[in-house]
Amino acid sequence: MSQSIAANPDRLLPADPGTRSIARALLERVEDLPIISPHGHVDASVIERNTPFPDPAALLVSPDHYVTRLIHSSGVALDQLRPQAGAQAGDAEAASPDSRTVWREFCKSWPLFEGTASGYWLRNQFDSVFGLQHEISADNADATYDAISAKLQEPGFRPRQLFKDFNIEVLATTDDPLDDLASHKAIAQDPIFHGRVLPTFRPDAYLSPANPAWSANVDRLIAAAGDGVTGYAGYITALENRRRYFVDHGAVSADHGVRTPATLKLDAADAAGLFERARSGQATAQDREDFEAHMMYQMARMSVEDGLVMTIHPGSFRNHHTATFNTYGADTGHDIPFAINYTEAIRPVLQDFGTAKDFHLVLFTMDETVYSRELAPLAGFYPAVYLGAPWWFLDAPDAMLRFRSAVTETAGFSRSSGFIDDTRAFCSIPARHDTSRRIEASFLARLVAEHRVSEDRAHELIVDLVDASPRRVFKL
């Protein structure tokens, strides 16, 4: 398999020569536009401190659950790929694996990634970011490790320079509500750095009583931002205050990684009762679900008031394998999608806020069955609702095409959020956005070839999808 696959200018474009020609022209319109990344997980301190990236394995393998999960499925133990939870240097009982050994295991497993989105992104990075001349393999593992290591030490291969080289204009992070946002402040005040690195309010750990740390988190939240008010009232006040703090420091959205998209409107007395039962450990499982659903309603109400775009990322059964979670922690490859119901679950919010002025609600899913059945019809009626881009297991070329085909006939193009890379892997950002642009060009080219959209209109649409939509939806 030749590395030239990653450099082929027609990668991901239609196989039919005539349609491919149309797609090429569409891609040319947008391939050099700046990257707008309104939802991701790169730590702002990476940009602020501008320190060199770690070794190849620590950068590209161990933290990427897309990568480690597939290698693990072939029978390789995770302790050969990533550190155990809480592992520290010198901790013999929870030692991290040697990076070069991890890289060798990854190179040996490289054939497993053919046809996967991870394989496509990584191959693209190896070619365009790291300049590897040959496909990685077990035979050249040490040579490619050394080549990438040398690249990582180059003065020009620092996060800030790559931010510029990648043509990133906006990069949103994901942040705890009590984060002081010091890195964001430092970046915003730096006269030399001209990109935008925006915080995102992520309150999951403070909204769900099912979280074992919820009560302790609530204590910290109320103490820090409750204005001296206690109980449920102080809790609501503290959340409102912290949201305003984020707005004051550049945030444009609040993100919610909930199990389901359930929402529930309760009066203050009933909500306070659930809150107190949860705090005292007397809440039932249903009480905990109802309280979280009510807090999702409250988050929507707050978004209407403070202007933060509300994004919902539901449908993941987190930490499916308990033993792996206990040893390696969260985000280690065993979060599994399940079916969800948006139409009924989100209705309480849409009843009150679906037509509210300037309220933007971006709905994501890991359940493809809701695309045409629920999400497109919701976005095709409610002014507040926008279609979140294919996410997590669905942020792959064929899944992106399925998404576009499923939603466009009902909701059109204008109700899309723009692409969301949702990544911790900074060096993969250009590859992910390039993938999306090629898929949009391919889809539009087919419509042009079938005489369903004019070529001139397709050129306008692709610019809107890539550039104007994320600016519009995320109020940039």
3D structure, described in words:
With about 475 residues, the protein is of the alpha/beta class. The chain has 2 domains: about 55-155, Orthogonal Bundle (uronate isomerase, domain 2, chain A); about 160-475, Alpha-Beta Barrel (TIM Barrel). The protein has helices spanning about 15-30, 45-50, 55-60, 65-75, 100-110, 115-130, 140-150, 160-165, 180-190, 205, 215-225, 230-250, 270-280, 285-305, 320-330, 340-345, 345-355, 370-380, 395-410, 430-450, 455-475; strands at about 35, 170, 195-200, 255, 310, 315, 335, 360-365, 385. The strands form 3 sheets. A 4-stranded parallel sheet has the order 4-5-8-9, with helices on one face. A 3-stranded parallel sheet has the order 1-2-3. Strands 6-7 form a two-stranded antiparallel ribbon. Strand 2 (about 170), helix 9 and strand 3 form a beta-alpha-beta unit. Helix 6 crosses helix 20 (about 430-450) and helix 13 crosses helix 14. It is globular, with a radius of gyration of 23 Å. The model has no long low-confidence stretch (mean pLDDT about 95).
